[in-house]
Amino acid sequence: MFENLSERLERSFKILKGEGKITEINISETLKDVRRALLDADVSYKVAKEFCDNVKQKALGANVLTAVKPQQMMVKIVHDELAAFMGSESSALNLKGSPAVVLVAGLNGSGKTTFCGKLALHLKKKGNKVLLAACDTFRPAAIEQLKTLAQGIDVPVFSIEGESDPVAVARQAIAKGRSEGYSTVIVDTAGRLAVDEELMQEIRTMHEACKPSETLFVVDAMTGQDAVLSAKAFNEAIDYDGVVLTKMDGDTRGGAALSVKAVSGKPIKFVSTGEKMEALDVFHPQRVADRILGMGDVVSLVEKAQEQYDEKQAREMKKKIAKGSFNFNDFYEQIQQVRKMGDIKDLAGMIPGMDRAIKDVDIDNDKAFKGTEAIIKSMTPYEREHPECLNGSRRKRIAAGSGTSVADVNKLIKQFEGSQKMMKMAMNGSLAGRLKGLR
Fold first, then answer.
1. Tens of pLDDT, residues 209-249
2. Residue 308 near residue 102, CB atoms below 8 Å
3. What residues does 215 pair with on adjacent strands?
4. Considering the entire predicted model, what is its pTM?
5. Which of 35, 42, 79, 224 is deepest in the core (most CB within 10 A)?
């Protein structure tokens, strides 16, 4: 996401390269290019103009230190303004109440029902007891879709067969949540093909009946300015608490993310970045501004790693490494944990400078691990436990069984042995450091 905008902004800043100071002339030339970049990213003209006016005012009024080049100062000002336009800080969900009720609204095709499942998993991981309420009685397939998603994440769904009144379903779901000790009830509502008065009235009625502690409006980021306009219209109707942008992984422009806060006045709370149920991120304006300007997002990368971190499992792994018994079963387990973190290209893009290095590289998550997984799965349980037994004939058999070559098997074993050595060295180094500290 934001790939095109990042490239255009980088080119814009080059106008200031070699300049001794920021002047009205060079700043105007730079901002003309920045405005074009924003418009190409599907940011509305009004928002793009306001953005550039703010940057110009701050740039001309900035006290540029002699140690800081004008180009660097400009990047800093644009970064801060981007973050401010997107909301400055992340906005947390209000989960007050017993149970807390989260009402989810949106148009058809925006990914509303899928988001309900993703949010349920997100809250479940944080220790919440979640109940999903299937209140999209307008589209029967939505109830089945929600049940299928919920089954995959082991979260219960409340629905009433044959009941066409969504308000009745919502009220009973909330009553069930209260009586059975659920901390959160997520209410999935019906979408429509367009913003119309019938839809608005239904949402108002649901809002009044549920008295939600949090109301979220879900929009498809790929629809650009249409997403921003529908967000504005819905906000005027029900005064929701926050926006959810879905399909952000397919939007290389990013206009919706940059405009929606400025136009609707409501914060973006979540972004959905893929089809998997784990592909939901809290929206952090500062971090997104970092990524747009090629600074990476190491904090989010660490957080994603911590989500997959199991302390007990880590302790056991540490013991295995110390004993030198790290094997292919452990190696396979580590691969699965990396896969759960999300798209490899997206993760690599969180490392400063890597987004530009890999922008033209096509990385398929499944293909990236497919050969490695096939090779490990073609080993016998004994071979996975005892990598040292993998002689020539065994390697030939594994290659035939995995549909790879002996060279591929040899390469993986070499990588595995390298990993073993590095882990052992790291363990020995940390142990030496602790012993040194005790002397």
1. 889 999 999 988 887 777 788 888 888 878 889 999 888 77
2. no
3. 103
4. 0.67
5. 42
